[in-house]
Specification:
Blueprint lengths: L1 E5 L7 E4 L10 E9 L2 H8 L13 E2 L4 E8 L11 E3 L3 E2 L5 H4 L10 E2 L13 E4 L2 H4 L1 E2 L6 H4 L4 H13 L7 E5 L3 H12 L3 E6 L2 H9 L4 E4 L6 H8 L4 E6 L4 H9 L1 E9 L15 H6 L3 E4 L8 H9 L9 E6 L3 H7 L8 E6 L3
Parallel strand pairs: 11-12, 11-14, 12-13, 14-15, 15-16, 17-18
Antiparallel strand pairs: 1-2, 1-4, 3-5, 3-9, 3-18, 5-6, 6-10, 7-8
The structure holds zinc ion (ZN) (2 copies).
Length: about 350
């Protein structure tokens, strides 16, 4: 089958012929119907994130935002059947550790990152293996087709968890999202659906235009103001209730925390780059004085996908609104290359793997 293979970090990527996967007894194989192209693939390609455990031995197949149709099921799998259309989280869980048993599979003790770790070759491929299929394959309701679900990859579902659970975004709250890439735009769309007044902050006008289309009540171009955090505090009469760093660089993280009012909650979704290597200095005394909460958010637990899928079924959320373009597997390397200069808007989805 064809797959996008990472042979050497930072060197050009290409499409290669590789072996089809065989299912483990607990695993299932899905034919990939769609897979989003994400900045996280770009980070993995660059060889970032060894501090996060996301630097695989090479060669390695990239891709971590798939939806698909089940084509083969391991002998020990009980709840998943051939032919089922499924959403697939990127953060595979074991189902046995205490976190999994307490509904926190997204931070499973035995976490395997699809497309980022040796144990899980990625999904820019005709087929992908899903370990512990009973937990990690999420059947789609009949009313949601795989096309629609293809926009629900890591950025959308991660933003759902960040806004609905970790940020606990409520009706009428002021939410500011710093960084309007795929995660940021998804967070804006979702926070708006949860009833918040959302402000988008970015450096690029076309991304801010998309932010407004997706529900931001206003936007700030950080290039046009002295200090975007001061601007947000002015707009919100004292500071936002919830801030999001959707990018993971020092500037956006600091600006997000500085945008908050007293008692505010910061949600960190973006992972840092090779400049920060996982560490960003923060104004801790101010965090104390304002009783600011700083919360991390990783993926979405499969057991809570149903909440997001219900909101999609009822039309409150529309992941297809985030999908900017559909491409074939041979265009994936160029799409990732374009991310070097932040030249992508929204979520590109690869939906043709065999051409
Ligand atoms: Zn676990
Ligand atoms: Zn992603």
């Amino acid at each position: 089958m064809q797959a996008v293979v990472l042979e050497e970090f930072q060197e050009p990527l290409d499409v290669q012929e590789v072996e089809r996967p065989d299912p483990e007894p607990h695993g299932v194989i899905a034919e990939v119907e769609g897979c989003g192209v994400c900045r996280s693939d770009w980070h993995c390609w660059q060889g970032d994130w060894d501090w996060f455990g996301y630097r695989p031995d090479l060669p390695h197949i990239l891709g971590h935002e798939p939806t698909g149709t089940v084509v083969e099921v391991g002998d020990d799998v009980e709840n998943i059947e051939e032919g089922q259309e499924i959403a697939i989280p990127f953060n595979f869980a074991c189902g046995k550790c205490s976190l999994c048993r307490n509904g926190r599979e997204n931070i499973c003790e035995n976490h395997i990152g699809l497309g980022f770790m040796n144990e899980a070759p990625g999904a820019f491929a005709e087929e992908v293996h899903i370990p512990n299929g009973d937990i990690n394959a999420v059947p789609l309701p009949d009313s949601i087709d795989v096309e629609t679900a293809a926009g629900c990859g890591c950025r959308f579902m991660t933003s759902y968890h960040g806004m609905a659970h970790q940020g606990d975004v409520g009706n009428g709250e002021d939410v500011v999202v710093h960084g309007c890439g795929g995660i940021g735009l998804s967070a804006i769309h979702i926070a708006n659906a949860l009833g918040a007044n959302v402000i988008g902050v970015d450096l690029m006008d076309d991304k801010l235009d998309r932010a407004e289309e997706l529900g931001a009540v206003t936007t700030v171009n950080a290039k046009d103001v002295d200090d975007p955090a001061t601007e947000v505090r002015d707009i919100t009469n004292g500071g936002a209730d919830v801030s999001v760093d959707a990018l993971g660089i020092e500037t956006t993280c600091r600006n997000a925390v500085d945008s908050l009012g007293k008692g505010g909650r910061h949600v960190q979704i973006g992972l840092t780059t090779s400049d920060e290597r996982g560490e960003i200095p923060l104004p801790t005394d101010e965090i104390v004085a304002k009783e600011i909460e700083f919360v991390g958010s990783l993926g979405l637990q499969p057991s809570r996908y149903s909440e997001m899928l219900d909101m999609i079924e009822s039309g409150k959320l529309d992941p297809t609104a985030l999908v900017e373009e559909k491409i074939d597997i041979h265009q994936v390397p160029d799409e990732l290359e374009a991310m070097t200069d932040f030249n992508t808007v929204g979520i590109p989805v690869c939906n043709d793997f065999s051409s």
